[in-house]
Amino acid sequence: MTASTTTSTRVDLALLGIRGTPPVNRSGGAGPTDDGHLVIDGLHAAIPRNPNSPFVFDGDQILYDGVDSGLDVAVIGRPRFYDLQTENGVAYDKIAKLHGRNVLATTVLQTCIRYGEDQRCRFCSIEESLRSGDTVAVKKPEDLARVARAAVDLDGVTNMVMTTGTSGGRDRGARHLARCVRAVKAAVPELPIQVQCEPPADLSTIGDLRAAGADAIGIHVESLDDDVRRRWMPGKSTVPLSEYWDAWREAVRVFGRNQVSTYLLVGLGEDVDEMISGAKELADAGIYPFIVPFRPHRGTLAVDIDGATAPEPRIVEQISREVAAHLQLIGMAGADQRAGCAACGACSILQSVGA
């Protein structure tokens, strides 16, 4: 199988998903969800679970229409820290999840002020895992510290991601993130942490996150097209792009070049050339543009109401390849981030094409 064929297969997997459930998986929540985590050709892969996919995970390999796909698949075992619980009886896997082989991820605030139907991001299901009882609403800093220590000691976790639903304060949830980072760093000082939040109204909050011990930051815009933002993110789009740019620039100043990232979702209707141009502009400013295909999944307005479908594979591959070429040109790689989504790379094919 050639590198080009492998990349195209990775794109198809990202969009069509797999039938079957790998030992490391998740359902509901923020961002791309209802996925299973595997290592494919040496790279993390978070693959949607789709009962109608032609790809089947048989517990060992990925088959396509009953035939071995030719991909080198490594299965990630169920983490041992999942078997533990807090003194109050809360299971550790309700506080944080393993992503890929070595990333610990948590949503420190599992509610969002923008979750009303007229405000919600149409691709998000952040509160669904809370409603199903798979998580707790607010993660306590001391609990996260214990979970992180266990995940490092028992399962070899090497970095952590902390995201948050948006709160009603000017910090938009960043203050609780800082408390959580500080507690984890006190317990596991060697563990790099990426934080993720909306642009705080007070930019000094970005410095507070760095002072608490955060090593990298994601400020996720999802689209640089205001029409797309209003259609897909009616609440979040009330934060103007100018505020995102102010926050990104301050984050680059505080955290450094290529320690700041943002999601850009392919398949929301944005012009392809404009998306590529915008991604290059972000990269030139020191912000890693994490290109991820929109993944339709149950529990989101995009699927349950709009009937939205995944983007065309050729568009995902085109955008990923062109953005990756620019990232290579300017010497920026996701793997060089200290922690976080771009460092993991599982939800994108950028690392598969060299970025």
UniProtKB/TrEMBL annotation:
Official protein name in the record: Radical SAM core domain-containing protein
Key words of the record: 4Fe-4S, Iron, Iron-sulfur, Metal-binding, S-adenosyl-L-methionine
Cofactor names: [4Fe-4S] cluster
PROSITE patterns: RADICAL_SAM
InterPro entries per the UniProt record, alphabetical: Aldolase_TIM (IPR013785), Elp3/MiaA/NifB-like_rSAM (IPR006638), F420 (IPR034405), rSAM (IPR007197), rSAM_MSMEG0568 (IPR016779), rSAM_sf (IPR058240)
Domain of life: Bacteria
Organism: Gordonia sputi NBRC 100414
Signal peptide stretch: none
Gene Ontology MF terms in the entry: 4 iron, 4 sulfur cluster binding; 7,8-didemethyl-8-hydroxy-5-deazariboflavin synthase activity; metal ion binding
Domain Radical SAM core residue range list: 98-336
